[in-house]
């Protein structure tokens, strides 16, 4: 598949006129090797001075938070594909999941620890054609890949660390609204997201019904359930109980809470897949040369090695504090909060909605998508058939591509 990267001409067009405050930071050191992720201080977070890659940056000002208080000097990192047309009505906002970022498509390399997390989405032959659409993807507020988050420097020149405030999904959408304002965009042809990204997509449709024409929500929910919050608690405690976490102030210490972050990832990854898939792929097979029943040292089963691999990958490219901040933001998610309940909130939506579940998803089971679909004024219900559980919304490229293509092909309400 051919991936279309942003052209310099597109960058210049986006930065003219109403885009004051949108900046590109200079690279302060030699580019890292492809796939290399540790930042200047050894963290998996992107830090100022690291290679910029394809990111651009928008300084969106001070942000009032839903729980009270103000987060000063917010900066949002983002990437774009395609060209913004003269009427500025061809914009698609793509929302990433928990450990994603603005790098939706593209190669790994300097500034980007891994290739695009949804590489099948944007291309001339893909569901989103950049010759027609102008695609924007931002690193979420509280994240660790260029947007303001716990690893960012506060006004005193020190990383926020444990001082970073609790932010909600609504705060994250408010920051994205500021970004789009800077880009001179006041209406979205579509907002599309899966998992945590689906929460923000839905919040856009509820909170700004005048600004969203289409909303595509994949493998997500209108509110965080007790079961989801329960799974999150064990992940949060795994990080916080790592001695190297240092209460969240580990930056510059030469220590990283990799063990806790890795354990959190192992717990989460089990919820992303299915019993059937793990059984078929690994069964009770030992890792090569590590049979627990025969090896001299304590060996591993193959499925244990698989989880260890994913734990290590995340620790190299992500920040433990951001994992906590974003997980707590997901726990905050409830579109009906302070809006008269779920049905009253969803009654506000004027967008043409597409609600998509994965049939084997045990984290966001299809019943939650059914509830969302039934309460929306206008919605098309779609299903992804997959052996891969929650991750099916990223893995089943053909099914997802058809759904997104058809949703974008329908005229808005």
Short description:
The chain has helices at residues 8-15, 169-182, 196-207, 226-240, 258-272, 275-281, 302-317, 320-332, 342-346, 366-375, 392-395, 397-409, and strands at residues 22-23, 56-64, 70-81, 91-95, 134-138, 190-194, 214-218, 352-358, 379-384. It is an alpha/beta fold.
Task: Note the main attributes of this structure.
alpha/beta; disordered N terminus; 32% helix; 413 residues
Description:
- The chain has 413 residues and is α/β, with parallel strands linked by helices.
- The chain is 32% helix and 14% strand.
- The chain is built from 12 helices and 9 strands.
- A 9-stranded mixed sheet has the order 1-2-3-5-4-6-7-8-9, sandwiched between helices.
- The protein starts with 7 loop residues before the first helix and ends with a helix.
- The model is unreliable at 1-37 (pLDDT under 50).
The count of helical stretches stands at 12
Which bin fits the share of residues in helices?
25-40%
Strand order of the largest sheet: 1-2-3-5-4-6-7-8-9
Rg, Cα atoms, Å:
21 Å
Beta-strand proportion: 5-15%
SSE map:
Layout (H helix, E strand, L loop, with lengths): L7 H8 L6 E2 L32 E9 L5 E12 L9 E5 L38 E5 L30 H14 L7 E5 L1 H12 L6 E5 L7 H15 L17 H15 L2 H7 L20 H16 L2 H13 L9 H5 L5 E7 L7 H10 L3 E6 L7 H4 L1 H13 L4
Parallel strand pairs: 4-5, 4-6, 6-7, 7-8, 8-9
Antiparallel strand pairs: 1-2, 2-3, 3-5
């Amino acid at each position: 598949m051919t991936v279309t990267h942003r052209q310099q001409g597109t960058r210049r067009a986006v930065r003219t006129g109403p885009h004051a405050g949108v900046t590109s930071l200079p690279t302060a050191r030699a580019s890292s090797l492809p796939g290399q992720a540790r930042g200047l201080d050894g963290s998996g977070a992107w830090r100022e001075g690291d290679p910029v890659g394809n990111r651009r940056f928008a300084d969106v000002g001070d942000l009032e938070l839903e729980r009270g208080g103000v987060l000063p000097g917010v900066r949002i990192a983002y990437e774009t594909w395609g060209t913004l047309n003269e009427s500025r009505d061809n914009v698609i906002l793509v929302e990433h999941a928990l450990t994603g970022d603005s790098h939706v498509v593209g190669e790994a390399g300097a500034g980007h620890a891994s290739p695009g997390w949804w590489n099948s989405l944007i291309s001339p032959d893909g569901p989103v054609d950049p010759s027609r659409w102008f695609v924007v993807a931002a690193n979420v507020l509280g994240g660790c890949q260029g947007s303001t988050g716990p690893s960012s420097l506060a006004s005193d020149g020190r990383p926020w660390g444990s001082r970073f405030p609790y932010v909600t999904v609504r705060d994250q959408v408010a920051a994205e609204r500021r970004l789009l304002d800077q880009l001179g965009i006041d209406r979205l042809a579509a907002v599309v997201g899966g998992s945590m990204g689906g929460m923000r997509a839905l919040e856009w449709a509820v909170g700004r019904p005048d600004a969203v024409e289409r909303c595509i929500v994949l493998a997500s929910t209108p509110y965080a359930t007790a079961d989801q919050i329960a799974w999150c608690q064990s992940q949060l405690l795994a990080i916080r109980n790592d001695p190297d976490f240092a209460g969240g102030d580990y930056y510059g210490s030469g220590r990283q809470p990799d063990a806790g972050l890795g354990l959190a990832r192992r717990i989460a990854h089990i919820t992303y897949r299915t019993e059937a898939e793990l059984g078929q792929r690994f069964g009770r097979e030992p890792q090569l040369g590590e049979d627990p029943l025969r090896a001299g040292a304590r060996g591993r089963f193959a499925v244990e090695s698989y989880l260890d691999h994913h734990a290590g990958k995340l620790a190299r490219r992500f920040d433990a504090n951001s994992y906590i901040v974003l997980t707590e933001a997901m726990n905050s998610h409830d579109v009906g909060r302070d809006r008269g309940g779920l049905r009253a909130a969803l009654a506000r939506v004027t967008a043409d909605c597409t609600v998509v579940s994965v049939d084997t998803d045990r984290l966001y089971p299809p019943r939650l998508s059914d509830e969302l679909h039934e309460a929306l004024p206008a919605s098309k219900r779609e299903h992804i058939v997959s052996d891969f559980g929650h991750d099916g919304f990223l893995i089943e490229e053909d099914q997802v591509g058809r759904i997104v293509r058809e949703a974008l092909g329908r005229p808005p309400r």
